[in-house]
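Q: I'm teaching a short session on how sequence maps to structure, and I want students to see two examples side by side rather than one. Could you give me a first protein with its sequence written out and its structure tokens following it? Keep the formatting plain so it prints cleanly on a handout.
A: Of course. Example one:
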Amino acid sequence: MKPRRIASCAVLCATLSGLCVAPAAAEVHHGSFVSASLERDVPYLVDLPSAYGEGTRYPVIYFLHGLFEDYDFWERRELTAVLRELRSRRDLADFVVVTVSGKNSFFVNSSMGRYEDLVTLDLIPYIESHYDVLPGAEHRALAGISMGGYAALRIAFEYPKLFAAVATHSAMLLQQVPSAAAGAGEWHMRAFGRVFGEPIDPKSWAAADPLVWAEQADAPTPGLYFDCGEQDRYGLARGNQALHAILERRGIPHEFALRPGDHGYEFVRSGLERSLGFLASQIMP
């Protein structure tokens, strides 16, 4: 049985009798499911094509949010509007987008909880059993922004057969363990500390570092696309360039773009057509 789906920003709330009615054209829906890895309910969002529910099964892109964000970033940061525009122009084949709440976990298994397992073990089978999506890695992609990009790249290298393609914007790639002396802010250091220890344990950091995983990865990896802003205020352009250099040296196919822009959603929105187009080209039947 399909879960009850409740539209978000498109919901028309009728004050009479306190009843909320979702219009037929609603495409973005919120829900929650029980994660065995976290042992609690976890909220998620799905962005569905307009023809969803007519018997077709669709490829799916799982999109991981950044630090200090949550699963609702897809709507709140107006990325759903970008996707709707692309769909209206018929520039993309139809697919489903899924986001999930990862808090400030960096989507790793740590004392905060088993957030990597949330993505790799819990979310995928739930979506494939409750929504009309095509099963199997060949129809599945992973994407992420900043912290979520960090996680998406690590998962791509750690589980190369789980997704057909991975794309990231402004992935949080650092060439050394973060510290206040290296420029990390107070709030960032607190977030790092909750996951990697206070002070940060270099072994824990290395165990989750996508740059370390890239040195160990063997082809074939999922199709890879990543970009970063030339003016990224956190200096992440250097880490993304370092990943590009590692992959080139090791002969691992990928696409990399260093584009004008800072760290933020203006940069993400400007590149979403390219990243979604790349992912769609890898997972369409």
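Q: Perfect. Now a second example for contrast.
A: Example two:
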Amino acid sequence: MGHTRVKAVVANPTDRVRTQEVELLVDTGAIYSMLPEDILGSLGIEPSGKRRFRLANGKVEEYLTGEAYVEVQGIGVTSLVVFGTEGTIPLLGVTTLELLGLQVDPVSGTLKPMELLLLHAI
């Protein structure tokens, strides 16, 4: 399977007038979405915490995190995002993907709605 890329609109969650269209690489191995800090800064999104991450090369590093509004295929959610260094490839991580109710179709390499479960007896 090749790489799945999607167009997204990223916005400040408290001021959705401040938006930017971004192409995201869908990374189902990444817990959170990651955007370059210059994009997040231009939207007025401030860091609200730090988290430790194990990288593909085995190193553990700490990154700033914050919240952004992410819209893909007309569906939008507020999600935790990681502040990547300038030039970082923007990633759509699995947490944001699940919040959007989307999944990767392994045959077509596109995003499709996932079956949402609500296991509550009425």
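Q: What should students look for in example two?
A: Point them to this: Residues 37-42 form the longest helix (6 residues). Also worth mentioning: The chain has two helices and nine strands.
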